[in-house]
Design goal:
With about 140 residues, the chain is α/β, with parallel strands linked by helices. Helices cover about 35% and strands about 20% of the residues. The chain has helices at about 10, 30-40, 50-60, 70-80, 125-130, 135-145, and strands spanning about 15-20, 45, 65, 95, 100-105, 110-115. The strands form two sheets. The chain has a three-stranded parallel sheet with strand order 1-2-3, with helices on both faces. A three-stranded antiparallel sheet has the order 4-5-6, covered by helices on one side. Helix 2 links the parallel strand 1 (about 15-20) and strand 2. Helix 5 crosses helix 6 (about 135-145). The longest helix is centred in the middle third of the chain and has 11 residues, at about 70-80. The model has no long low-confidence stretch (mean pLDDT about 95).
Length: about 140
């Protein structure tokens, strides 16, 4: 993310959710794009759209990537201005219900400021994400046999 914002690594905190625009992850077919976010503590990326290769690498490594153009557009309207920095720390908390396909954002007082839908993910992808990646999922399956 350094080429996008040199301050990103200083701003990102464990358990942050990254919200991004269109074609997130395009241009990299390497796993490091996903594993670098995981190493920074990011567990969820919500974007307008993402590269299919990036999404597969992300799931294989335990990083959840969900496309929600409506949420990203809402965030832009709320936080982006002509003089805003590339990385904006919103101060909002995200409450994600993967089974229900829902997301709720709350402010520092706990008040809901956004409620929306998220795409549901299949059972296999859910299991891989919960296991912390494909390698861990395979390891657990082999140990259970």
């Amino acid at each position: 993310m350094e080429n996008y914002d040199p301050e990103f690594s200083r701003l990102v905190q464990p358990d942050d959710v990254v919200a991004a625009g269109a074609n997130f992850g395009t241009g990299s077919s390497r796993e490091q794009a996903a594993t670098a976010l995981l190493a920074a503590g990011v567990r969820l990326v919500v974007c307008e759209s993402a590269s299919e290769t990036f999404k597969r690498n992300a799931v294989n490594n335990g990083l959840l990537v969900l496309e929600s153009p409506r949420l990203v557009q809402w965030l832009r309207k709320r936080f982006q201005s002509p003089d805003s920095a590339p990385t904006i720390v919103s101060g909002l908390d995200a409450h994600v219900g993967l089974v229900a396909g829902k997301i709720q954002l709350t402010d520092s007082s706990g008040a809901s400021v956004y409620d929306g839908d998220l795409p549901r993910i299949g059972k296999a992808a859910q299991e891989i994400i919960v296991a912390g990646g494909l390698e861990n999922w395979v390891r657990a399956r082999m140990a259970a046999q």
